[in-house]
Design a protein that fits this description.
199 residues; mainly alpha; elongated
């Protein structure tokens, strides 16, 4: 009798136990599959066109270009202030300033009128292009009364800008990195020409 009682109780208990195990397995399998589906959806959004990684890269490139354009605009303002304070340096500074204006345009900044700085190095004529270069351009820097010191200050500004562009190369995409490197090299050459005593 002990043998017959045990089998009648076990089938019912094991059936309840089997149902519970089956439910747990179903829930576990469902959660694993749901998690996998979420992971796959996340991966496809990153890789697909317009994904967040591409948008982040585009935003980073836009920030680098914007900073380079603002740096060029600040440099233009420095050239304009120097030309206004020392009109006698016009022949020497106007070609360099024109190149800085081209750099600003290459980075997507507004291009100032090319004829204004080359025809009139006066304060009124040269201040207008720097204002049109960008709305966020800083105020004109103070220019020393001594021409040689004014050139040295301008050369220092060129060096700082070139150094900032060289530092930005690390995080720039290839095409922008080439442009930054080229403009940084031009800035270093400008700094040399500004401090050279001849001419």
């Amino acid at each position: 009798m002990i043998t017959t009682d045990a089998p009648t109780e076990d089938p019912g208990k094991s059936h309840v136990h089997n149902v519970a195990l089956t439910r747990r397995r179903t829930l576990l399998a469902g959660s694993v599959l749901g998690g996998a589906a979420l992971l796959l959806t996340g991966c496809s959004e990153d890789v697909g066109p317009g994904g967040s990684r591409q948008e982040a890269n585009a935003a980073a490139e836009a920030r680098l270009r914007g900073q380079a354009a603002r740096d060029s605009a600040a440099l233009l303002a420095h050239y304009d202030a120097t030309l206004a304070a020392h009109p006698g340096l016009g022949e020497r500074l106007r070609p360099l300033r024109a190149e800085v204006a081209r750099h600003a345009a290459a980075f997507g900044g507004a291009s100032p009128a090319p004829s204004a700085p080359s025809t009139a190095p006066r304060a009124g004529a040269s201040a207008a292009p720097s204002a049109s270069a960008t709305a966020s351009a800083p105020a004109s820097p103070a220019v020393p009364p001594d021409e040689k010191q004014a050139r040295a200050d301008l050369a220092a500004a060129e060096r700082r800008t070139a150094d900032a562009r060289a530092a930005a190369l690390v995080s720039a995409p290839p095409e922008l990195a080439r442009l930054l490197a080229s403009v940084a090299a031009a800035g270093a050459a400008h700094a040399y020409l500004l401090t050279e005593d001849g001419a």
